[in-house]
Amino acid sequence: MVIEEIIYQHSVVSPEKIAVISGETAVSYHVLWNNIKQAAAYFISKGLKKGERVIVSASKNIDFIYAYFGAHLAGCICVPIDPETNITRLKRIIDCATPSMIIGELRNKEEYEVLPFTEIRSDKDFEVFFPQGKDIADLLFTTGTTGMPKGVMLSYFNQFSAANNINTFIGNTSKDIELLALPISHSFGLGRLRCVLVKGATLVLLGSFASMKKFFGEIERCKVTGFGMVPASWAYIAKMSADRIARYASQLKYIEIGSAFMPIMEKEKLMRLLPDTRICMHYGLTEASRSAFISFHADMEHLDSVGKASPNTEIAVFDECGNLLQSGQEGEVCVKGGHVCAGYWGVPEDIFSNDFYNGYFKTGDWGYIDSSGYLYLKSRKKEIINVGGKKVSPIEVEEALNSIPGIEESACIGVHDDVMGEVVKAFIVGSLPQEDDERIKKEMTALVENYKVPVFLEHIDCIPKTTSGKIQRLLLK
Prior knowledge:
- The protein is α/β, with parallel strands linked by helices.
- It has helices at 3-13, 29-45, 62-73, 87-97, 156-170, 187-199, 212-221, 231-241, 264-273, 349-352, 394-402, 437-444, and strands at 18-22, 25-28, 53-57, 77-81, 101-103, 136-143, 149-155, 177-180, 202-205, 226-229, 254-257, 278-285, 288-295, 308-309, 313-318, 331-337, 343-344, 356-357, 360-369, 375-380, 385-387, 390-392, 407-417, 421-430, 456-459.
- It has 2 domains: 3-369, ANL, N-terminal domain (Rossmann fold); 385-476, ANL, C-terminal domain (GMP Synthetase, Chain A, domain 3).
- It is built from 12 helices and 25 strands.
- A hairpin with a 2-residue loop joins strand 21 (385-387) and strand 22.
- The radius of gyration is 22 Å and the shape is globular.
- The protein starts with a helix and ends in an 18-residue tail after the last strand.
């Protein structure tokens, strides 16, 4: 079974059930399916064949949903990207994915032709063939330690397995009404979209958490029963609205939190405000979405852990030689399950197999499992910076910094932040005085997304490197 076929079944069994709400627009499952079919017909009419890539700007509107599932129904591979993607990253993704079409709204499209969502529809009829589970549905581009985008291949089976695991743990049902304010260019937000529609529930689209008036207004207007957020979102909600969320304690059935560090005191505060809400926090990565879960109230004695393995998932810890470790022993966290990605785009299977220990995918995270099965993370082996749940490559930020006249070279690390979990700190070598720091930050806003701009700058004489010339970022921590 694939998610697209499940949406079709909902359109037959519950055609008038509201699937998506966006402002004053409410779309039933019958209308949702018809619009998905019209989008699929467009791709087919343009001659796109099975396996061709389509870059889709993941802006939070109903047209994205039609195009996303429509591309799948037409046999295409979707490449969802952030509408704010900078041109350097966009070019690298295009070079890697070689898409046949780019659709949506991109702020930095430059010379590339980008078709608006309004064009992605056709009334031409066609025979529907649902994708097979082993087929690749999406390429989600992460940022690897080299700074080059890495295309994670997710099959339809991977996506269905993940949605099933998540819904099983949280306890989602068709009666849920979920507010989606997360970015849907990332695994978390896109996963929530799929989880809701798999269950035949209702999804309420909200641009972001920026406006508390809109956030709480939609919770009241649409009788929302749950939502997903990252810890940075909660810090913002608490700062801007104090304890107002407690007013909805009897209404909110669940909250899913993920993608970044959250202080225990904030977890406990949320528990006090929402004593009967199932507050879940996940651990995972794009390659293996939501591999572990913790339920704050049920696991209150283990709030410093990331919980236990998700349903239908196995977690084990291995040493650097690939030996399985016992409880309490620290090593690399590895996961196994149907949700683990099918591979990396352009990487041969025999090379991809090196990312596994005895069938367990290597996450690159370091930790241990205690005698009760709770997973504790100690550090990240990789150097990716996690800003409020968004992954930042130090290489990408360094490239932008080094393009600024007066900066000879730079190195970036993540440093702790009470709200965002981590923020970027840059060490720079060059002729610029400290008085130019604010100007440097301002110039960076034109080169990278705002969350990638260094919050802290430190001027140093030289960057520590290995004998082969590789930057030793860990020495700067």
